[in-house]
Amino acid sequence: MPGQGGIWQQPNSLWEATAPPPPALPVLQDSVKADLLVIGGGFTGLSAGLHAAEGGRRVVVLEASELGRGASGRNNGQVIPTLTRPDPADLVARFGTEAGERFVGLIRDSASTLFDLVRRLGIDCAAEQTGWVQPVHSPGRIKIAERRARQWGQYGADVELLDRAAVSAMLGTDAYFGGWMNRTGGHINPLALVRGLAAKVVAAGGAVYVNSPALSVERHGDGWVARTPRGVVTADALVLGTNGYAAAVFPDIRTEVVPVLSWQMATAPLGDNVRKTILPGRPAMSDTHGDLRFMRYTADNRLVTGGALLIPVNGAERLKRIVGARLAGMFPALNGVTFDYVWNGRIAMTTDYFPRVHRLGPNGFAWAGCNGRGVALSVSLGRELAHAAIGRDPKDLALPFTAPTPLPFNGLLQRIGPLKILQYRWNDAREI
């Protein structure tokens, strides 16, 4: 449910129970000027604000709610340096050799970009750069792992193709037929990262305002003007980083993605004897199912996983049964496992699984469509959007611009979107 003013009333997450407290941030109640206005206080917006502020620019970030109430603070926290479906060859074919290869490079380095930033700034977000592995759930799908490992390896990614024995040793289950891994991936507490980034934006001289939604944004003269319920921001440049929570003032971007409800859940802490037999190296894992299986550990050894539902009614209790049985089938030691937290948030999906990067006008930039890969991708794209907004030639940046492509009948697609799970499950059961 959407609540008053479009803010979702969602169940509390594990991250809210364990993240360091947020910095004290004000509501915008005045007229202010900036070199860069950033709308959205998630990974994209805060990364853009940080990089611009560190470059000496006056930065204002507007967050419609509290920090991390959108997808950036409510996801699984996996840091994955790939896209969901498109591979490097697909990106080059779509965007051309120069732009496509620059974008491939951004994605290849995106996990290391995030972890290096966390280390440089000393952000307390339970960061573990322990790698990311994608196991394949049927023999035929080993072709997916072979293709992805080969293509990303050709562009210098730290990847490895894994046979069945290697995956079994890495995960502690014989449920898979092989896979591949990228050693630069890992996982973080996403809400802690959001809060830490906001504090660093302020420390660098920027301003972050919460509970300050942009009610209107327009081009005025040589700049941009945004109005909130109590204030006005006038800026030379604009970055929109709202992704699946885009405001109605940007209808073309809001309607080119389909927000999909994603459920996350965390077990009780596992004893060390069990933990050492399941994902013993503590990597992040998400497999080749369309109805995805995914998991990673927290600092206190909870297994954070989740699932999708066709009908969200009584979702938390149903998922405890469904995912609990799924885990027990993969890991007999987890038979009877209990879940202390179940929560959800929205993922912004595109119909072709490609992200969208846009020029909004002179010195105005945006992106949308994380497709479940938003943690690493958002931080890196936020940096690139900031560089474009403060004057670097976008042709030299990893920004494959396209025009917005609003989806006809977007509202209908959102209503019937959960039915896609049926197609995923059908495909998952078939060999390829």
**Structure summary, number of beta strands:** 18
Question: Can you count the helices?
Answer: 13
CATH class of the largest domain: Alpha Beta
Enter the CATH topology name of the largest domain.
FAD/NAD(P)-binding domain
Indicate how many domains the architecture comprises.
2
Instruction: Tell me, rounded to a whole number, the average pLDDT.
Output: 94
| CATH superfamily placement of the largest domain | FAD/NAD(P)-binding domain
First-residue to last-residue Cα separation: 38 Å
**Annotated CATH architecture of the largest domain:** 3-Layer(bba) Sandwich
Percentage of residues in helical conformation: 25-40%
Strand content: 15-25%
Poorly predicted regions are 1-9
The global form is: globular
Radius of gyration: 21 Å
| Structural class computed from helices and strand pairing | alpha/beta
Protein name: FAD-binding oxidoreductase
GO molecular function, one term: oxidoreductase activity
Pfam families: DAO
InterPro entries: FAD-dep_OxRdtase (IPR006076), FAD/NAD-bd_sf (IPR036188)
Any overview of this molecule?
With 432 residues, the chain is an alpha/beta fold. The protein folds into two domains: 14-76 and 191-255 and 351-416, FAD/NAD(P)-binding domain (3-Layer(bba) Sandwich), CATH 3.50.50.60; 129-186 and 259-348, D-Amino Acid Oxidase, Chain A, domain 2 (2-Layer Sandwich), CATH 3.30.9.10. The protein is built from 13 helices and 18 strands. It has helices at residues 14-18, 43-54, 88-95, 97-121, 142-154, 164-171, 190-203, 251-254, 272-275, 315-330, 374-389, 410-416, 420-428; strands at residues 31-39, 59-62, 78-79, 132-135, 159-162, 179-182, 186-187, 207-209, 216-220, 223-227, 232-240, 258-267, 284-286, 294-297, 303-307, 339-349, 356-361, 364-368. Strands 1, 2, 8, 9, 10, 11, 17 and 18 form an eight-stranded mixed beta sheet that branches. Strand 10 and strand 11 form a beta hairpin. The longest helix is centred in the first third of the chain and has 25 residues, at 97-121.
